[in-house]
Design brief:
The complex is a heterodimer of chains A (324) and B (363). By secondary structure, chain A is α/β, with parallel strands linked by helices. Chain A is built from twelve helices and 14 strands. Chain A has a seven-stranded mixed β-sheet, sandwiched between helices. A five-stranded mixed β-sheet of chain A has the order 9-11-10-13-14, with helices on both faces. In chain A, helix 7 links the parallel strand 6 and strand 7 (168-173). Chain B has a five-stranded parallel β-sheet, with helices on both faces. Chain B has a two-stranded antiparallel ribbon with strand order 4-5. Classes of the chains: A alpha/beta (324), B alpha/beta (363). The structure holds thiamine diphosphate and magnesium ion. Magnesium ion binds at residues 166-168, 196, 198-199 of chain B. Chain A: It comes from Microbispora oryzae.
């Protein structure tokens, strides 16, 4: 066991992936000498060289477009988008090409491209540095979309993402980059597309991913003091969705609250609520409730604590569920 | 893997300079400038004052009063020279680092600080100053500037648009599309690229094999490289380009050759990727020192003048600091304001629910 921050765990996972397969490349803005603005790629260029850890021109469409070309030549590019709000110049390449080229080729083409995106708020940043754009990508068939929440998962999930043959949008909870935990560098970890019950409970299921998993665990701990036994499930994968684990949990508890930072309106929670309602209708004691960002752009940082769903907002939703 | 930025160049890049780093006035065949003593002193004052605002902002960030600050240190002449070339009717589209141009457009510095403090994502009325909001997404504003220029053109306005961007931005698709649009529409726009040699940790070689000003010719309009640390040259070159634009001669790309003396932003640590030697070499080309030397040598200003400017800078720094510290946080309901032009059922509902929820804590 080694104690690692989440950022360092991804770094170790990338390192391992690059050692295992010489076709793995890391590319993005400032990923080389600087090691990325969050230091996730720290030291990789020093150890693997400028040929494999590439400081690209400042152009996101170019990063993804050339990654697709490299993948067509048998490479496995891991692209870094510096911040969530800067993925949009690359949206065209991701949505019209990366997601759909394999299908267009009748399966002849595989595009093992990983797009790493630090996402979410809570770091006091200026505009475009705190967003949660996951629903844009879960809405796009052909992409796998995952979000890690802790160092141990981050370490194995990034390796699985690199190893897989599908394009993966890999969300990293930036306000948790500095969270530390024990990581077993030899353990294989749960498969990439599996959800994990991170806290078993009997009374209500809290569903979360990325940065909100920790918030939900804290909410569950607080609820325990009030005599409520909450289960917390970390989705890990948003597409595909591990419906088996989710359905089983919600059928057992009969109540479900979904939490994410992204706006609730048309957010990923809507998909979860709809699906779980269909699958668990007769077991539900209350509608599946959602807690998340407002239907507004992410506010300036002095207001972000109001915007971000915190422990109290999650517990408020829990109260509302129990009030049915 | 790294390309030499001089590849593909037949002749060494020419740099328009009117004032040497030592403060000597030099001639240039294509660009000249007639300025009164008073005007040169006024430029000096601008340079000193914006540097002071910048230093104060960096200090405020260090003290936790701002979330972030993007320093203009080293780029004062590029910004003041170009900014003072504008007429009131001209429109400006800045990045996030154009505090000196904001100064020329009479935007209250505290409003700039507010954005970096996190009380607002904009903070001023662009139409009031003909100075658009800061744009953080690299390159986006270049297209807005061209569109605005197309509007000026249609309206027969006697004005031009000037858009600022960095060396790194020249790689963005949007910027290249802006060049194309400006070219085919002959839009009255000046592309003012501050080549400060770095895009965060990436040196210019990661973006270009040729000097940036040379890009313009491929798009079909003139490009010129100016000494970005020479306020007189920046003023002269920009004046000319704006005049050409207003007179229907279309766009110009100006590459202001300068240096980012500080970190990319206060979050950055340049010691990880660049050598201190480079910084030392550029210190000798300081944009303020050369004007001071010129004024002094030619007896265009005396000690009393310099002291007066310094005192003014002190007072300005103090004022900006004081007003920054008292900037109020917006109320929580501000989250729901201005998302749409008018009422919006869902937002109105969410606001009411949230305010009720918050009120629950006060009980
Ligand atoms: C589309 C986009 N991608 C990435 C970023 C992150 N970022 C902010 S500034 C910057 C470098 C900009 O360099 P340059 O254009 O040279 O301007 P400078 O900061 O040097 O003034 C980067 C990559 C961004 N703001 N927007
Ligand atoms: Mg730059």
């Amino acid at each position: 066991m080694t104690t690692l921050t989440l950022a360092k765990a991804i770094n170790e996972g990338l390192r391992r992936s690059m050692e295992d397969n010489a076709k793995v490349l890391v590319m993005g803005e400032d990923v080389g000498k600087l090691g990325g603005v969050f230091r996730v790629t720290d030291g990789l260029q020093k150890d693997f060289g400028e040929d494999r850890v590439i400081d690209t021109p400042l152009a996101e469409s170019g990063i993804i477009g050339t990654a697709i070309g490299l993948a067509l030549r048998g490479y496995r590019p891991v692209c870094e988008i510096q911040f969530d709000g800067f993925v949009f110049p690359a949206a065209d390449q991701i949505i019209t090409q990366l997601a759909k080229m394999p299908l267009r080729s009748l399966g002849k083409i595989k595009l093992p491209v990983v797009v790493r995106i630090p996402f979410g708020g809570g770091i006091g940043a200026v505009e475009h540095h705190s967003e949660s754009p996951e629903a844009y990508f879960t809405h796009t068939a052909g992409l796998r979309v995952v979000a890690c929440s802790n160092p141990a998962d981050a370490y194995t999930m990034i390796q699985d993402a690199v190893r897989g043959d599908d394009p993966v949008i890999f969300f990293e909870p930036k306000r948790r980059y500095w969270d530390k935990a024990e990581v077993d560098l030899g353990a294989p970890g749960l498969p990439l597309d599996r959800a994990k019950i991170v806290r078993p409970g009997a009374d209500l299921t809290l569903l979360a991913y990325g940065p909100m998993v920790k918030t939900c665990l804290e909410a569950a701990a607080a609820a325990e003091e009030e005599g409520r036994d909450l289960e917390v499930v970390d989705l890990r994968s948003l597409n595909p969705l591990d419906l088996e684990v989710l359905t089983d949990s919600v059928r057992r508890t009969g109540r479900c609250v979904v939490a994410h930072e992204a706006p609730v309106f048309s957010g990923f929670g809507a998909e979860l609520a709809a699906r779980l309602t269909e699958r668990c209708f007769y077991h539900l004691e209350a509608p599946v409730l959602r807690v998340g960002g407002f239907s507004t752009p992410y506010p300036p940082s002095r207001l972000e604590d109001y915007y971000l769903p915190d422990l109290d907002r999650v517990l408020d939703a829990v109260d509302r569920s129990f009030a049915y | 893997m790294t390309a030499d930025a001089s590849h593909g160049v037949d002749t060494p890049p020419e740099l328009v300079q009117l004032l040497t780093p030592e403060g000597e006035r030099v001639e240039h065949p294509d660009y000249d400038i007639e300025l009164t003593e008073e005007e040169v002193r006024s430029l000096y004052r601008d340079l000193v004052l914006v540097r002071r605002i910048d230093l104060e902002a960096v200090a405020l960030q260090r003290q936790g009063e701002l979330g972030l600050w993007a320093s203009l240190l080293g780029q004062e002449a590029a910004q003041i020279g170009s900014g003072r070339a504008l007429t009131d009717a001209d429109m400006v589209f800045p990045t996030y680092r154009e505090h000196g141009v904001a100064w020329c457009r009479d935007v209250d510095p505290v409003k700039l600080l507010g954005l970096f403090r996190g009380v607002s994502n904009g903070g001023w009325d662009p139409a009031e100053h003909n100075f658009h909001l800061y744009t953080i997404v690299i390159g986006s504003q270049t297209l807005h500037a061209v569109g605005y220029a197309m509007g000026l053109q249609r309206d027969g306005a006697e004005a031009a648009t000037m858009v600022y961007f960095g060396d790194g931005a020249t790689s963005q698709g949007d910027v290249n599309e802006a060049f194309i649009w400006a070219s085919v529409t002959n839009a009255p726009v000046v592309f003012f690229c501050q080549n400060n040699q770095w895009a965060i940790s990436e040196p210019l070689e990661r973006q270009s094999r040729i000097p940036l000003y040379k890009r313009a010719s491929g798009f079909g309009f003139p490009g010129v490289r100016v000494d970005g640390n020479d306020v007189l040259a920046c003023l002269a070159v920009t004046r000319q380009a704006l005049r050409n634009a207003r007179e229907g001669q279309g766009p110009t790309l100006i590459e202001a050759f300068t240096y980012r003396m500080g970190a990319h932003t206060t979050s950055d640590d340049p010691s990880r990727y660049r050598l201190a030697d480079e910084l030392e070499a550029w210190k000798l080309k300081d944009p303020i020192e050369r004007v001071k030397a010129y004024l002094f040598k030619n007896r265009l200003a005396d000690q009393e003048f310099f002291e007066k400017v310094d005192a003014e800078a002190d007072a300005l720094g103090k004022d900006v600091r004081g007003r920054c510290l008292t900037l109020p946080d917006p109320p929580p309901e501000a989250i729901f304001q201005n998302v749409y032009a008018g009422p919006h059922a869902l937002i109105d509902e969410e606001r009411e629910q949230f305010l009720t929820y918050l009120a629950g804590f006060e009980r």
